[in-house]
Amino acid sequence: MIHSYCKFVKNPALSSYLLCYLKHNNSLFTGVCANNKQRLCVTPVSTRSLSTEPKSDYLDVDGVKLHYVKFGHGEHPLLLMPGALGSALSDFGPQLNGGFDPETYTVIGWDPSGYGKSRPPKRTFPLDFFQRDANHAHNLMQSLGYEKFSPLGWSDGGITALVLASQYPESLRKLVIWGANAFVAQEDLDMYESENPVSFRLHPYS
Fold first, then answer.
1. Interval 187-204: pLDDT, tens
2. How far is CA 18 from CA 30, 56, 87, in A?
3. Residues 197, 122: contact at Cβ < 8 Å?
């Protein structure tokens, strides 16, 4: 059985392209289809077994029931931090389904409070919500027994990771961020509020 997930991504060099993930016979593949080439080049990014399924669970952190997904059992813990309106599985489905070597890494993907399966409570956006999410993320990893870990943050998750790094530098091994903003404008806050609550997010492999 083949499970696939594709999404359009804008890129100035390619105009736009279609990024695809496919899981077939317990192997993970990724590929790109550019508009100006009209072809799909699918190359394996992992040929090892994906039989180790990610584990989904909940943990009470600072009085909030947080959902997280765990994959692998390696000595290097990673924390995947989704972007605005996202969740562990919506933003990091391929990574949590064999995208990292499970012998090297323990991969934790979390749903920030009010997102994904970490609801209730309803998502709110006070002025310190990045600080709140950073505290939750750090305390989640500490509660799971990971004193030092490496956050990988995308978009708002990248901002949260930067705040986390500034507040808890002793807890970080490495820091990887992409698509993060330098500040939050009023238009961003208006967008967050207009999209809340989120009724559902698509699971890449559902």
1. 877 877 776 554 444 444
2. 11, 29, 21
3. yes
